[in-house]
Amino acid sequence: MRAALWLMALFAVAVASALFAGNNHGTVTLYWSPYRVDLSLNLVLMGLAGTFVTLHFALRALSALLRIPQQARSWRRLQKERSMHTTLLDSLAHLVAGRFVRARKAAELLVSLEESVRRSGEGLPYAGKLRSIAHLLAAESAHALQDRPVREAHFQQALEHASGRDAQDARDGVQLRGARWAFDDRDAGAALHWLEQLPQGAARRTVAIRLRFKAARLAGQSRLALETVRLLTKHRAFSEMAGASIARGLAIELVRSAYDPVQIQRAWDELDASEQTMPAVAIEAAQRLLAYGGDVATSRKWLIAVWDAMVEHLDALTPSQRVSLVRVLESGFGAADAAPDVAWLRRIEAAQIAHPRDAVLQYLAGIACMHLKLWGKAQQMLRQSLSLLQDTDLRRDAWRALAQMAEQRQDSQAAEEAYREAAKR
Questions:
Q1: Of 142, 163, 184, which marks where a domain is finished?
Q2: Kindly report the CA angle at 128 between 126 and 134, in degrees rounded to 5?
Q3: Pairwise CA distance, residues 321 & 355, whole Å
Q4: Tens-digit pLDDT profile for residues 211-237
Q5: What pTM was estimated for this model as a whole?
């Protein structure tokens, strides 16, 4: 369609020209004393058009001739840029292929090529970022070769060249690689230092948070590691199950790093509500608080959520966790002036009634009654639990409790028999 329109336009121009030229009888007279020259108007118009075309092409030819030196410089610059790009690709290809010596040599060649372009006075607009990336590739290759002096030299030059505003993205990458190399060198302090130098936006990237988590674990900073694993779970870098498992381990480490009741309370307050309801965490915190002479009521308060979960579903806690929970409560009962209060006695009785065949709950109910000096009920509960208890330590302690109550009744024979059974365990 377009070709047909052009053809029609060409025919229209030809017809208009023929009509104008065929019937044009005008002349142009030039006077140059003592001469007179008469020219056809058509000839004058054709001459003017020809002169214009000739001048146009002459000027274009002159301009092209004058641009030859500039085009030569542009061609040389283009060739150097192509050579730099090829060298950059070669360095990357060698690096990912594991040819680290070749990768470093290609990166160093890239630096020398860029310097030659800069010395020629034709600086590239992205020169800073290119030099930074080249030194970074050389440093990465040296790190793979475990050549730390060369790595540090290129790393410092990469930081220097990435200090410009146009190379901010490259600087973030250089700092991240510096943190990674420090972590590989098992230098957690240096890794965390470089991560702290990152801008706020770069520090919240998943790769930076992952690296901070690993460095915090290496440095033994459970609090920082716990904060980062929460962020990673929030950003879906970890699944909910994996994040909860890691958070549980870190929360236990945080609690174990405290060595007095105040520190334990502070560690507990730093945990999220979901972490405080984890059985392993709550049991560990309550047990550690009692071990360092903390408040018994506070330890029981921490265990309420775990206790309710166990009463509702016995499978919510593993057998070992149920035994640990009973042990912590038993330790609280045995503390001075810390007998089971009414609320906890009701909880224990309700749980034992709801699960009458559970030997662990029977044992706990018996111990609670013993500390409340309900000797008859305590003896009944403990003897019922003996036939079902699977934990050896609980069986031994149940016999010891029966022996102590027999001594209270001054029944030496029953006490001796109970101590004999406890000794067998």
A1: 163
A2: 100
A3: 17
A4: 999 999 888 888 888 888 888 888 888
A5: 0.71
